[in-house]
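Students often ask why inverse folding is considered easier than folding. One informal answer: many sequences map to the same fold, so there is more than one right answer. In these notes we will look at a single instance of the problem. The structure comes first.
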């Protein structure tokens, strides 16, 4: 028991440091991009298109890599696979730590695009699988909420640091913390599946199926003949459980909206209300503090009486409300007020991952989480292709009608589709194996 708690604590520290290094550059990257591409302006279509193109390419890469990384982690361990994305993420940060001139920015842009095809979402995906290896089904939603709270805490600390650090120092700190995170993880984090037999896995079950062999004996592990999943494997995975496929649909539309907000919201706020690094940091700080408190303290209290399916629907509905408010914002204080809704918005991602986890076998957590991450990445390919041109068009003088937040309103409609789909997720029996319940810990 004590050994497992220690292992999770090291995972939390690793996730915190990795998240800190990633989040600290978020408030400043818009200003860095604008200065490098369109110096002296608050509106730049080229910057929007560059950001959207990068996001689409990264989404394409991660859509292919996430199922592979998740599946390989089931075979070779979470720690081994964590090393790759954590190490690669250091490279682009180090470039801007040296200089932020136009040439250095484009070098960063190219390296960030290439490395993020492997890194984006990998650490979160593998961390979720690591937690699922150690936490029983009944407490998994709370555990995922706590893990998300750790990430939100890293977000808060990173945003505070970005608020007071100079831009150059921000990237230097990010590089140092990224290196520290890799070293810490390699030294202290224990492998969560080291006692499992390599090459063995359990299938994801269809709802209502029992794991019984034809001869009536207890279930036996099935060997995996290939470690690289094909498109057919992923389709079979999605068809294995109606709840799993419905959760994948929710993940797609939610990520489509999230990708739209990433590619549009900062440029919208900069053009509409002339936000700069400090205002972006303030917004992120408010959202981060509220999210951390909610995920660490409020969500664990609500999971048992309400359930992860209802929490998912509630979170999506409130996120849709937030997008609507931002799209029609009539004053600069409206986006600040809307971020208070983060206290409920943050219920959605951990609840969705909990639903997915319960539909996966004990030794297919990496594959299941990787599959959902791949679906989300696919949405991230499409999002900038839709929302970046919309944002650029409605922020320009050639807009067909005056509605600067039209792209954000379209994002709200996408979230409403995700909300409606979430209502269709049935109450499916868990297919996670309880064979290793003695190795699980309660939260």
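Output (designed amino acids):
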């Amino acid at each position: 028991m004590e050994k497992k708690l220690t292992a999770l604590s090291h995972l939390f520290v690793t996730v915190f440091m990795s998240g800190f290094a990633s989040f600290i550059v978020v408030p400043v990257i818009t200003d860095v991009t604008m200065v490098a591409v369109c110096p002296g302006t608050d509106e730049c279509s080229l910057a929007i298109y560059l950001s959207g193109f990068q996001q689409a390419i990264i989404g394409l890469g991660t859509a292919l890599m996430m199922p592979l990384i998740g599946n390989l982690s089931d075979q070779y361990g979470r720690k081994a696979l964590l090393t790759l994305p954590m190490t690669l993420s250091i490279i682009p940060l180090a470039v801007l730590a040296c200089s932020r001139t136009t040439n250095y920015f484009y070098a960063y842009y190219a390296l960030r695009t290439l490395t993020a095809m492997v890194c984006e979402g990998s650490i979160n995906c593998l961390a979720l699988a690591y937690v699922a290896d150690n936490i029983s089904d009944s407490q998994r939603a709370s555990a995922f909420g706590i893990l998300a709270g750790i990430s939100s805490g890293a977000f808060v600390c990173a945003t505070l640091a970005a608020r007071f650090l100079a831009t150059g120092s921000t990237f230097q700190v990010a590089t140092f913390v990224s290196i520290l995170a890799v070293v810490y993880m390699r030294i202290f984090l224990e492998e969560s599946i080291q006692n499992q037999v390599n090459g063995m896995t359990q299938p994801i079950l269809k709802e209502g199926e029992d794991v019984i062999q034809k001869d009536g004996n207890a279930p036996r592990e099935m060997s995996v003949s290939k470690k690289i999943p094909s498109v057919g494997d992923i389709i079979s995975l999605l068809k294995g459980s109606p709840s799993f496929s419905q959760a994948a649909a929710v993940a797609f539309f939610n990520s489509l909206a999230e990708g739209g907000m990433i590619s549009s919201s900062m440029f919208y706020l900069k053009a509409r209300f002339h936000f700069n690094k400090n205002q972006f940091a303030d917004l992120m700080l408010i959202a981060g503090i509220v999210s951390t408190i909610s995920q660490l303290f409020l969500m664990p209290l609500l999971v048992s009486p309400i359930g992860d399916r209802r929490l998912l629907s509630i979170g999506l509905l409130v996120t849709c409300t937030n997008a609507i408010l931002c799209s029609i914002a009539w004053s600069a204080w409206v986006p600040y007020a809307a971020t208070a809704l983060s206290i409920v918005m943050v219920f959605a991602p951990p609840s969705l991952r909990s639903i997915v986890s319960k539909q996966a076998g004990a030794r297919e957590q990496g594959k299941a989480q990787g599959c959902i991450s791949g679906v989300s990445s696919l949405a991230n390919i499409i999002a900038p292709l839709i929302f970046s041109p919309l944002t650029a068009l409605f922020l320009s003088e050639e807009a067909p009608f005056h509605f600067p937040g039209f792209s954000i309103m379209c994002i709200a409609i996408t979230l409403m589709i995700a909300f409606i789909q979430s209502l269709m997720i049935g109450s499916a029996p868990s297919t996670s194996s309880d064979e290793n319940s003695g190795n699980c810990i309660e939260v």
